[in-house]
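note to self — DONT lose this again. spent like an hour looking for the file last time. sequence + predicted structure for the chain T wanted, 819 res
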Amino acid sequence: MLGAMTEIPESGSVVFSSRLSLLTHPWLADHVAGGTVLLPGAGFAELALRAGDELGCELLAELVIEAPLPIPDRGGVQLRLEVTEPGAVGHRGFTVHSRRADAGPATPWTRHASGRLAPENARPDFDLTVWPPRGAEPVEDAATTLYEALAAGGYGYGPVFRGLRAAWTRGDEIFAEVALPADATAEGYGLHPALLDACLHAGFLRGGDDRGLVLPFAWTDVRLYAAGAGAVRLRLAPGGPDTVTLQLADPTGTPVASVESVLARPVAAEALRAASGVTAEQMFRVAWEPTTIRARQATLNAVAVAGPDDLRALAGTDPELLLLDVLGGDRVDAAEVHDAVAHVLATLQAWLAEPALADTRLLAVTHGAVAAEDGGEVADLSAAAVLGLLRSAQAENPGRVVLVDTDDTEESLRVLPDVLAAGDAQVALRKGVCYVPRLARAVTAQRPGPVFPPAGTVLITGGTGALGGMVARHLVREHGVRHLSLVSRRGPDAPGAAALVAELSALGAQVRVAACDVADRAALAAVLDAIPATAPLRGVVHTAGVLDDGVLPALDEQRLATVLRPKVDAAVHLHELTAGRDLDAFVLFSSAAGTLGNPGQGNYAAANGYLDALAWHRHAAGLPATSLAWGWWGRTSEIVEHLGDRELQRIDRLGILAFTQREGMELFDVALRAPDPVLVPAKFDLAAMRANTEPEHVPPLLRGLLRVGRRSVGGSTAASAGRLAEALATAPPEQRPAILLDVVRQEAAAVLGHVSADDFGPETVLFEVGFDSLTSVELRNRLTGLTRLRLPAGFAFEFPTVGMLAEELLRRIDAAATE
């Protein structure tokens, strides 16, 4: 279980390092407590004993387990066991720390255990050669009875940890035979943790422990006499209040190990889940970090555009930079949001559609649309929605859109040209200081969560859907909510609504289900007015939403409205109609699409960007507000039912993992206690993302989390582009079409996740083999990077076969060479 050992010069201390995961140590999956996979307490003992053997400190004099060490489903944990220099009598202290295996260098370590090692060459003072011991009475069906009882108590032991084979009692003593299963090996271990942990299980045969879930906490004087035992005889006896003493021998009765004292203490399953890494590893916030920009005395040479008409008037010109000033408004006004987003969408579409502007960048300036400083707020809520749209525009058109949010101070306006020259894709300027957004681990559990009074009502929009139903069950089971108002478009007629009501009623809740378009203010007001005074409204959870995905050129005002109405209009109405009510919680289910700027989801990104801004607005006004910009829920939500296997595979390739329902609701509870009004619960496979991302292509928002090493010489996209250019320049004319054909085939296969390009011939029609508008944009971006050409968003639509794409690329490359 331990890997490398490093001696620290001059200090005399030694550091042991290792990596634990379900892949390297699959037996760990069989140790589950309270629904969480944990390193057993016996695992800490094994680690300490092994370190002691290396340092001539054979006695584990003391071990205190301070915090459980959860093992994640995917990836693993880095482990560090640090042993101090020897004291006056040779004793050494030690600590055990861990953090996720994919954590960056700035991620803090969690301390799990501490203790003391001592030099000793003791001989055992017991033997168990007489077996069973005289006077011991057998326990019938001991293993079956024990593990059924343990399962009912929250212990999820798998086969490797179900080691009890037989048991006898003699007064307060318990004798048992314990063994690893035949397919588990003890080789390489001092005392296999599963074997030692199973010895502790025998203590439950005494009964009478009503403390619930208990785990080993403190170990005293652990001695190992022989290594590699796969089966043992055990004597377990009381050692004091809540403690036991262990003596282990091999099947011949020869001593193997002894433990003077093990103290167990109760632990809540909720605490184990909280420690499982969900709170620390999957909850993020957008942190605006100050950055240094070099003063260049640059001037801003840009052509200002106010809308699509200005762009059309630029036909035939070739400006280097366009300036779009985004002015929304500080009101909570849904109509204003629709107008602002539609206007900027039309402007973007006119810009992208004009061939003469293919090499022109767009600088979009907003004014107080982000909360960039501690204690800051969002002043322009409509512009915050526009920013969501613009972030999607950035994703669909890499390198062509720059976003700057300014406080309009003289200092900020003065440095704006230098900021643009610095090359950051998104910045905020506050009194001349430049801030860049980075996704960072959120601070959690800083305030008590809301306590919903039993007589209060919680209203859930989208309440009969999968997410709404999940929240409803959770509020009833875990928060004790007894009055629910579930609102959805179809209400009682929604599929599964009747079954949901029956389930919640059986749990003791009174449930009202209403058919209501939450974007209809009058209809929503009627639902709120129907909540009885005896069960007043105390909480709102807004989960309703609709998707209508499409790249920017394919969107229109109707497709905007389809997505904005159930998110934005409903949130505005909920905000205004509950203004005079005493709420404990106001939770908005947003999406990371608004934060990350997902390509092909400009309308959805705008809608969720507004929800986040509304949460900031309410927070500044002293009102309860939590906006959760959720990552990937998988197939949990109905709004993603349209996604096919290829879309799901694309999400997997991006390194975004789906929440389980349990994880999602744990994060929901964490968010209610967090100080930030806007949080990003997201499950990233950072190791996979790191492996598949070139340093220059790390999304700016992820640069604090995704630390990619230096690129290998010749391993970047730029190097690949250089090799392609050289190959085309040196190849005979008749071979150049084949070179580009092979490039298109390889990139098309990569976009669809194919291992081989064999499925893509010259006549292959891309939209017949799985390409859509979004994947065609991804293919365009890849080809742009390799050829250094500015290709239109609809490039794959204009030239729909692999061969036609290759021919057009060659034509454009030759045309660019003659310019």
